[in-house]
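Checklist before submission:
- one chain only
- standard amino acids only
- sequence pasted in full

Submission:
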Amino acid sequence: MKAAYSPADMSKSADVGAMVAQAARELGGVDILVNNAGIQHVAPVEQFPPEKWDAVIAINLSAAFHAIRAALPLMKARSWGRIINIASTHGLVASVHKAAYVASKHGILGLTKVVALETATTGITCNAICPGWVLTPLVQKQIDAIAAREKLAPDAARMSLLGEKQPSLEFATPEQIGAAALFLCSQAAGQIRGIALPVDGGWTAQ
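Returned file contents:
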């Protein structure tokens, strides 16, 4: 297994294009693209800093567009490819104080559907995975904020976060998200195109 590192700034279209070109050059092609970069900022709409809005949209949505745009010709040359966009339950439903994040993730689902339609007669598929709460550093920050605000122990803060949205009361794991991505890359998923696959402990079933 060969790996390569790119220092690309995902908020810059030229850097994203260069990253894809580097991958093709050093790794022999781009067969699978997983768009997984993401940032968050939380504030009411009227207090949301414009520069934070621009940053969230650039990283969460525009970077995926630029990567797909650069990778598609490489995939078409091989008549095969898998594009997996890591969206969020917030691509399907909203929460307060997350205007930029929710907008970006709804946008990712729209982009996923357009790319799926444009590649529908090819060996290239494009789908999205919509995780609920996954215990990542981004989510841990929200748990810590709950603990501080409500004066809760860490375990109680976790349950407070989960109980508000995720009926299973368990975090999805990075391994589960990876397994879903692996399935979407398989031949069995060859006719799964343009979907938003929730891995969310029942969040969007409510």
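Reviewer check: The beta strands are 32-35, 81-86, 124-131, 196-199.
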